[in-house]
Specification:
6 helices, elongated
Length: 126
């Protein structure tokens, strides 16, 4: 699959895809006889994983570490698992924080709907 097909399929920019490649996150992308990148299904799965992790805020450096371990083979399975567990904990914390913020916003919106915003501000609640 050519780069234009990948960016269209995954709804990302050429720059993002090239950045992931230059960062070493994608490993070696095969090229055709003309020198054009030729992404395979494995490459696409890897890009999808990277996009998913980036969407929830996993840092590039953590992804590099994970991908480097992945490229080293099965001897790194336990290290990869630990890394993923750590990131899952971080994501779960973010979810909890976002749920709390969502409840706070819902509460404030309800105050607006009830015309009680002034009461809220005078009560000292945040």
């Amino acid at each position: 699959m050519k780069i234009n097909e990948v960016v269209k399929k995954l709804n990302i920019s050429h720059d993002t895809l090239r950045f992931y490649e230059k960062s070493g996150l994608l490993g070696v992308i095969k090229r055709d006889d003309s020198g054009f990148r030729n992404y395979n299904d494995s490459d696409l799965k890897r890009i999808e994983f990277i996009l998913c992790m980036r969407n929830v805020g996993v840092p590039i450096e953590v992804l590099k570490q994970y991908m480097n371990l992945l490229d080293m083979g099965d001897d790194t399975i336990e290290q990869r698992k630990i890394l993923l567990i750590e990131q899952k904990k971080e994501i779960d914390k973010k979810i909890k924080d976002m749920q709390a913020a969502s409840k706070k916003l819902e509460y404030k919106i309800n105050l607006y709907n009830e015309g009680k915003l002034d009461e809220y501000l005078k009560s000292g609640k945040n």
